[in-house]
Automatic annotation (TrEMBL):
Its EC number is 2.7.4.25. It is found in: Cytoplasm. The gene is cmk. Pfam families: Cytidylate_kin. Its main location: cytoplasm. This is Cytidylate kinase. ATP binds at G11, P12, A13, G14, A15, G16, K17, S18, T19. Residues 7-214 form the Cytidylate kinase domain. The lineage of its organism: Bacteria, Bacillati, Bacillota, Bacilli, Bacillales. The keyword Coiled coil does not apply. Keywords: ATP-binding, Cytoplasm, Kinase, Nucleotide-binding, Transferase.
Length: 223
């Protein structure tokens, strides 16, 4: 085993990945890497430049040439920290579209692998256990019913003083799941050696404890 611990958490939108991954990372005192925010950043930059889904070459070039640094709660690009602007429905949907582009994925996967090369990380996304870190010591596939996932997003947006439309959110999540599961290149899939956790009826703390226990076992008892 490598001397550093790699934890991969994958699953569909709203399953609780980032909430759980962040807490596990905090408890282990290692960095949390939110790969979704990297796809969201490229989507944001592409839309800002007026690019559309048919301009794959230009969008891939952005993914290749844009230096980005993950910071607490966001991404730093060209000296600007992007946070809430990455979390809109428009960005979620466009991120899912550009995430199907092979050269975009190649560029971002390389950055993700570089981050995990020299340090322990908890990384969440769609293809971490299958493609980005197939050597991860702990792999979790987190899921929940689609209705529960849409309810969570609904609650999250209400908490930000927005007035979300539940049916619209449900349809958007369905569409994003479909894109993510059916794309040719690195689709969302449970790795063969990943532990499946259905978060529908589990509290965040229960899941965190379960994953910490898996880490503990893998590291021979040392957290
Ligand atoms: O990262 P992902 O899209 O998988 O989900 P998230 O952003 O971590 O979670 C979406 C929302 O669901 C957050 O507001 C969480 O607090 C909430 N959540 C929950 O209420 N119960 C859980 N068991 C997991 C997440
Ligand atoms: O928070 P949520 O689960 O809704 O989304 P996210 O993790 O921020 O990811 C946004 C989009 O980026 C997803 O719908 C995927 O299409 C894409 N993504 C991906 O393809 N591979 C990853 N490792 C992470 C995100």
């Amino acid at each position: 085993m490598n001397s550093h611990l790699l934890v991969a958490i994958d699953g569909p939108a709203g399953a609780g990945k980032s909430t759980v991954a962040k807490r596990v990372a905090r408890r282990l005192e290692i960095p949390y890497v939110d790969t979704g925010s990297m796809y969201r950043t490229i989507a944001w930059l592409a839309l800002k430049e007026g690019l559309t889904a048919d301009q794959e070459a230009e969008i891939s070039e952005l993914a290749l040439s844009t230096p980005m640094t993950l910071v607490e709660g966001g991404v730093k690009v060209h000296d600007v920290v992007l946070k809430d602007e990455l979390r809109t429905s428009e960005i979620s949907n466009f991120a899912s579209t550009i995430a199907a582009m092979p050269r975009v994925r190649e560029a971002l996967v390389r950055k993700q692998q570089e981050i995990a090369q020299l340090q322990s990380v908890v990384m969440d996304g769609r293809d971490i256990g299958t493609h980005v870190l197939p050597q991860a010591h702990v792999k979790v596939f987190l899921t929940a019913s689609i209705e529960e996932r849409a309810r969570r997003r609904f609650g999250e947006l209400q908490g930000k003083n927005q007035s979300p439309d539940y049916e619209k959110l449900l349809q958007e999540i369905k569409q994003r799941d479909e894109n993510d599961r059916n794309r040719t290149f690195s689709p969302l899939r449970q790795a063969k050696d990943a532990i499946l956790i259905d978060s529908t009826d589990q509290t965040i703390e229960e899941m965190v404890e379960m994953i910490l226990e898996l880490c503990c076992t893998k590291m021979g008892g040392a957290e």
